[in-house]
Write a structure and sequence with these properties.
By secondary structure, this protein is an alpha+beta fold. The chain has 5 helices and 10 strands. The protein binds biotin. Biotin binds near residues 13, 38, 56 and 111.
């Protein structure tokens, strides 16, 4: 898979889209030392100190139908979980539905995915991943961040983290395509706060939910409490 390495870009997701629009052929990955307009979920931005974190976007061609697009989310979050565990065996990252990765009660990674759909099939997916790697101080307005380095007191080579993640995302997307039931079971078993109350953003609305799993479209299965 080709790696497009950039020093500075507005957003690796935007750059991946521009490359696709210009005729680049997936799979490829865009990886930047610095983003000037990193995008987060909803209207949020993604703030990551330059050269300290992994900010990248994979452009893949999942062999999945539109209704199965949540499986890309499942694959991406499991690939991040595996990558963190390979580098930091002492921790057990959990997935906060749909695709935030948490260690204990702190967010270590955010994922932002968009799809190009043709007919009833996914043509390509842009999977943007922001993994906190070596950053040790975060702006106060970021809720509960944590980095790999804060957890292990070590520094990591970000190019190596990218290569490990690249291998994992390809392998796990393959596995999810061939055995979605087992993959969804593993995802569910590794959900953050499974069976416990937690606040989730569902269709842009914050809800206090007790999650028990995901449904056949990747939606959260949960009981709702009053916030
Ligand atoms: C979230 O809000 O949790 C999602 C954050 C996703 C951030 C990553 S960083 C690399 C890629 N490029 C972007 O502009 N956003 C994603």
């Amino acid at each position: 898979m080709k790696i497009n390495r950039l020093k500075k870009v507005d957003s690796t997701n935007l750059e991946a889209q521009r490359l696709l629009d210009a005729g680049a052929v997936a799979p490829f990955v865009v990886f930047a030392d610095e983003q000037t307009a990193g995008k987060g979920q909803g209207d949020h931005s993604w703030n990551a100190a330059p050269c300290m974190n992994l900010t990248c976007s994979f452009v893949l061609r999942p062999q999945l139908a539109v209704a199965e697009q949540y499986l890309v989310t499942v694959a991406a979050s499991l690939a991040v979980k595996k990558t963190i565990q390979q580098l930091l065996p002492a921790v057990n990252p959990k997935i906060k539905w749909p695709n935030d990765v948490y260690v204990d009660d702190k967010k270590i990674c955010g994922i932002l995915i968009s799809h190009k759909i043709i007919g009833s099939e996914i043509e390509s997916s842009i999977i943007g991943i922001g993994l906190n790697v070596n950053q040790k101080v975060f702006p106060e307005n970021i809720p509960n961040p944590v980095s790999m380095s804060q957890l292990s007191k070590k520094n990591y080579n970000i190019d190596e983290v990218l290569l490990i993640l690249k291998k994992n995302i390809v392998e796990i997307l393959n596995r999810v395509e061939t055995d979605p039931i087992a993959s969804v079971r593993y995802y569910t078993d590794n959900m953050y706060k499974l069976g416990e109350k937690s606040v989730y953003t569902v269709n842009g609305v914050q809800k206090l939910l007790t999650a028990t799993g995901i449904d056949e479209y990747g939606g959260i299965v949960a009981e709702e409490d009053l916030l």
